[in-house]
Design brief:
mainly beta
Length: about 120
């Protein structure tokens, strides 16, 4: 079965950095787009970033563009999110998610599995 296990969250001050990881198993990781999504307190899920199967196509939400970097290591079945210049509004539970289909239409980033999430708290 599909398993996605996030790690790397924590407490950080504004302007700080964190690197999230997501270990994937139970499916052929290397052929799927993968995403990061987040859920801030009292809000719904927000798509953050996506990366295609070979890492050559990447997209970011406007709210994180220029500050976050998504990457993947297909040999390790692992997805990453480097988060720099963190702001208080980045406080959320971060989830990695598997694309619903192998072929993805840009801007239609649908996903069918996600992990348990890792908490990121940015505080001053």
């Amino acid at each position: 079965q599909v398993q996605l296990v996030e790690s790397g969250g924590g407490l950080v001050q504004p302007g700080g950095s964190l690197r999230l990881s997501c270990a994937a198993s139970g499916f052929t990781f290397s052929i799927y787009w993968m995403y990061w999504v987040r859920q801030a307190p009292g809000k719904g899920l927000e798509w953050v970033s996506g990366i295609n199967s070979n890492g050559e196509s990447i997209a970011y939400a406007d709210s994180v563009k220029g500050r976050f970097t998504i990457s993947r290591d297909n040999a390790k079945n692992t997805l990453y999110l480097q988060m720099d210049s963190l702001k208080s509004e980045d406080t959320a539970v971060y989830f990695c998610a598997k694309a619903k289909t192998i072929v993805v239409v840009p801007t239609r980033y649908e996903y069918d599995y996600w992990g348990q999430g890792t908490q990121v708290t940015v505080f001053s």
